Automatic annotation (TrEMBL):
Organism: candidate division WWE3 bacterium CG_4_9_14_0_2_um_filter_35_11
GO-annotated molecular function: ATP binding
Keyword annotations from UniProtKB, A to Z: ATP-binding, Nucleotide-binding
Keyword field contains Membrane: no
PANTHER family (UniProt xref): FIDO DOMAIN-CONTAINING PROTEIN, FIDO DOMAIN-CONTAINING PROTEIN DDB_G0283145
Cross-referenced InterPro entries: ArsR-like_HTH, Fido, Fido-like_dom_sf, Fido_containing, WH_DNA-bd_sf
Protein name: Cell filamentation protein Fic
Domain Fido: 207-340
Oxidoreductase is among the record's keywords: no
Site (Important for autoinhibition of adenylyltransferase activity): E157
Binding sites annotated in the UniProt record for ATP: D286, G287, N288, K289, R290, T291, A292, R293
């Protein structure tokens, strides 16, 4: 499902055009001419290669010939997200209206070897930096990181605290006057969860259902949210996708995810897959994405990778990237978000 075939930017454009509707060769050529100096021969060759790779098919004869997508690549950015989300949620043509368990078996294909090699270079750099920093400096930098993670992770979920008020709350335990008790608690729970991880760091090198439940219980502390796996169906705002609807299916799926991640060698892939699939499974009544971000970070930092604060992420784009995965099984946009935030962490935290 997650294919890694070579494809040119021009061919990617063609796939983008065909996600909207079937088109003739002439229509495709006309669209390409807006960005490329192409001839009929070049367009025909691109179309032939896409047919050969199984992405599109040709139908009809002569002037009535048109092209359509047969196998949408799920690791390539073939959608224009602005255009995609202009379509009303109930009118979008989606592949995944319900949870697709086979996606778990595709985790191995989320990153290619070249991408992982680059990540490992950054990992070694992080280990080297941390070995040279004194404990006071590390503690101070972790505090700054936790403040920014707590602020942005909460903001993604609709919390209206400012970054400065978040800092005042975490450092001085002073609640913002214009924010609710629930918003203050949401912020503080991020800190409590991350403090727990740092005190038990060796227990977080791997994903586990036990760690998932423990972190969730800290994330929803004093927020009147059930802490066990949910017993009923839930919906997600902005999408028709429906997660699993009973506790037993959720338990079995978490076990399957656990087994799959144990077989994965790269901790970086484990961390990313944890973020994606806890958000996708939605095992709890609430607090799923916050839990996913914290648990993913625990795997990163326990294995000497930079953790992600998400400070620079656009909240709407983050949600769109997740929804396109829910609806079309397309991982490319959320993967890009993750890698961009990892790069942000490399340049903004724990610098030498």
């Amino acid at each position: 499902m997650f294919m890694n075939r070579a494809i040119s930017p021009r061919q990617l454009k063609i796939l983008n055009y065909l996600t909207d509707s079937n088109k003739s060769r002439a229509e495709i050529e006309e669209l390409l001419l807006k960005d490329y100096a192409v001839s009929k021969i070049t367009v025909v060759r691109d179309l032939s290669e896409l047919i050969e790779q199984g992405f599109i098919q040709q139908q009809g004869l002569g002037p009535s010939t048109y092209y359509s997508i047969t196998n949408k690549p799920t690791n390539l950015p073939i959608y224009n997200l602005d255009e995609y989300f202009k379509t009303d949620v109930d009118k979008r043509n989606i592949r995944g209206s319900h949870f697709e368990i086979d996606l778990i078996n595709e985790i191995d294909n989320f990153f290619n070897p070249e991408e992982l090699d680059e990540i490992e270079i950054s990992r070694n750099a992080f280990k080297n930096i941390m070995s040279k920093r004194n404990s006071t400096d590390i503690k101070k930098e972790l505090e700054r990181f936790i403040i920014e993670l707590s602020w942005k992770s909460s903001k993604i979920e609709g919390n209206t605290y400012t970054l400065l008020d978040t800092e005042n709350l975490i450092k001085n335990n002073i609640e913002a006057l214009n924010n609710s008790k629930e918003e203050s608690q949401m912020i503080l729970n991020h800190k409590y969860a991350f403090d727990y991880i740092l005190k038990n760091i060796d227990n977080f090198k791997e994903f586990s259902g036990q760690n998932l439940k423990q972190i969730h219980s800290l994330i929803v502390k004093d927020l009147n949210i059930q802490t066990d796996y949910r017993l009923h169906a839930v919906g997600i705002a902005g999408t028709k996708y429906l997660p699993l609807d009973n506790k037993y299916q959720i338990e079995d799926t978490i076990k399957m995810l656990d087994m799959k991640l144990k077989d994965i060698e790269s901790p970086f892939i484990k961390a990313f897959a944890t973020l994606v699939f806890i958000s996708y499974i939605q095992p709890f009544a609430d607090g799923n994405k916050r839990t996913a971000r914290i648990l993913s970070n625990s795997i990163l930092i326990a294995n000497n990778y930079y953790p992600l604060s998400y400070r620079s992420v656009d909240e709407i784009e983050y949600k769109k990237a997740l929804i396109i995965f829910y609806e079309q099984f397309n991982i490319s946009y959320f993967k890009k978000t993750f890698l961009n935030q990892y790069q942000f962490s490399m340049t903004n935290y724990f610098k030498s």
